[in-house]
Write a structure and sequence with these properties.
374 residues; alpha/beta; Rossmann fold; six-stranded mixed β-sheet; five-stranded parallel β-sheet; 11 helices; 15 strands; 43% helix
Length: 374
């Protein structure tokens, strides 16, 4: 072959290679993915994880997905939250937004205020808005199912946030806090403290939220562990604090009138525990002989623990992880990358216990899921 013909052949080969690359996107072979989060099994067999995020979604600083090209559909994810009054719910909200921005999708919020009628209206509004998936925290089980059924009829997948619900078609099972296990941790802490500081005897009260199944599970776990670890500690009152500090303060004041010897209180969320703390302080309770335990992981609770008073422990939820994982799954299903059936089981996220020993680390933590204290 002449030099001229050889040069022509090589040129044609290069051009053909470039055209082939353009047609296939030029993508290299996919790299091996790192293994997912470490998992443990609770007694009941459900999956318990410390960090449910895929490696690519573990930090808010991860590279964002490019915005869709002109004319390309931008997916829209609807989110129903119960409130934005609690610090936990605000953190959850920020996690939804951060992950949606990273995924390059639009997010639409609706607040149900724990009212079933508002929850159903939220579902109707989001469906009318043309969302491609819904993440919903239930006002109650019936309204959760009503929205799930409406979404299923429209072919819209649902991701369960908030509390475990019965398995339903078209719904990714619960992704969130191990509330029963966390309640048991609270009960174990209380039993140990009562045995060491009160001779095993205590007058105990609980603040609950009976319409919220997660709180029911927390109180159940607390009562079981307390009875097992400190049989001499008796729960004499269990009242609905509505999950709000002012109501919890009022309810605790009423409980103290009927049972002035109450010296241990467990609140099913931090607002409940902080309201109870204010009532106990106003009643002049001896901090050395009084115990308050919360459940959420808010900075308000952490600051009280750091003071070294009655508030001695907090069971920590991880809304930063929960909301990001829920949004990650919702987007995957909306885009057709995954199916609801790919997520058949609930995912329960471990609840760290914060005390005076580690509270400083949690107060310094900046919210990066990859850097959370253990």
């Amino acid at each position: 072959m002449s030099r001229k013909n050889l040069f022509l052949a090589l040129s044609l080969f290069v051009v053909a290679s470039m055209l082939l690359s353009a047609c296939t996107g030029g993508a290299p072979a996919p790299a091996a993915q790192p293994k997912g989060p470490a998992e443990a099994q609770q007694t009941g067999g459900e999956k318990i994880v410390e960090n449910p995020l895929t490696p690519q979604a573990q930090t808010a600083e991860a590279t964002a997905v490019p915005a869709p090209a002109a004319g390309e559909k931008k997916h829209k994810i609807g989110v129903i939250q119960i409130t934005l009054e609690h610090e936990y719910q605000k953190t959850l909200n920020e996690g939804f937004k951060a992950q949606a921005a990273k995924e390059g999708v639009e997010v639409v919020f609706c607040i149900n205020n724990l009212r079933p009628e508002d929850h159903i209206k939220c579902g109707d509004d989001l469906i009318a808005a043309g969302v491609n998936a819904i993440i919903q925290a239930p006002a109650d089980p019936a309204s959760f199912k009503a929205v799930a059924d409406k979404a299923l009829a429209k072919g819209i997948p649902v991701v369960n946030d908030g509390s475990p619900q019965p398995k339903m078609p078209g719904v990714v099972p619960f992704i969130g806090t191990d509330s029963l296990g966390g309640g048991k941790l609270a009960g174990e802490f209380a039993a140990d403290w009562i045995n060491k500081n009160l001779g095993g005897q205590a007058v105990v009260a609980e603040l609950t939220l009976p319409t919220f199944t997660d709180c029911v599970a927390r109180n159940k776990g607390f009562a079981e562990a307390l009875a097992a670890g400190a049989p001499g500690a008796k729960i004499v009152a269990s009242q609905d604090g509505n999950g709000l500090r002012p109501k919890a303060l009022e309810v605790t004041e009423n409980m103290l009138q009927g049972n002035p010897d109450i010296n241990v209180i467990f609140g099913c969320n931090d607002d409940s525990a902080l309201g109870a703390l204010s009532a106990l302080q106003a009643a002049g309770k001896d901090p050395a002989k009084t115990l308050v335990i919360g459940f959420d992981g808010t900075n308000g609770a952490f600051r009280e623990i750091q003071k070294g008073g009655m508030f001695r422990a907090d069971i920590v939820q991880r809304p930063d992880l929960i909301s990001r994982r829920q949004m990650e799954i919702a987007v995957q299903i909306a885009r057709g990358e995954k199916k609801v059936e790919d997520f058949p089981d609930p995912t329960y996220i471990k609840t760290p216990v914060v005390t005076t020993d580690n509270v400083a680390q949690w107060l310094e933590w900046n919210g990066d899921p990859a850097k959370a204290p253990k």
